[in-house]
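Exercise 7. Predict the joint structure of the components listed below.
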Amino acid sequence: MASGRPDYYIGVDITYQDLAELIVRPQNIPQIDVDILTQTLSEVTNRPKYGGALLVHGSVAVTAGQINTLVGVDGKGMIYGGYVYLDYANSQSAGQVRMLADDQTLNYDSFSLLNNFGVTEPGRSAVFLSKYDDTNFIYCAGLSHGITFETSIELKYFENQGYTPTVHYRLVYALI
Amino acid sequence: MQVEIRGIIQFENHGHKYVDVMVVEDRPDNYVTHHVGVDIEVNRGKILKFLASMYGVRPGDIAWPAHIRLKQGDIGVSDAL
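Solution:
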């Protein structure tokens, strides 16, 4: 009758082993706080987490007397720039290029108002005037850099003079 | 592969309505834009089905962040399922 301790009870004395490597894994891994101020890093890179710049562009034959949507982006990100322009056969001085961020309209200014008060510099308004020629009916509105949005950004054109111009747009943006 | 939607772009160009979807593959890098629909009504289910077939995963495996929302608009996208 076999006696003695069964084989599976035999312990292993690791001090007598000839191991290529010995891996010791602690039962409970302690939480180690890292103090970056004491690190000897040559530099620390800190950058906004935006994806690459993107362009969306197109041309829309707008409906007279209505607010026409040119482009809409659902997401979270930032405007880098862009512009909306038209070259028509009739006056569009009362036309409005509107930018909506998160469904909030950021401007209601017509081309003529922007021209009358000299709103021609980026940053003074979400939409600023870039070209105003009410003789040849050429208009252009720029889009300011740095407009952020959490859920959506839209470009719209309000035509309120009874015509159907073709409105061209270019929007440069980035998403998170 | 983990796929997450980062943006939905709806725009009109020369009388045609487009819907693009930007996704990020294997976060945090590699943003990719896909053309989902032209002159067709696109909704959440169609976008998920399109991406699922493209990436060979189930529609439920596509991450849809809470801040991305489709709203009834005049450029090709309906929130109706």
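Discussion. Chain B touches chain A through 26 residues (CB under 8 Å).
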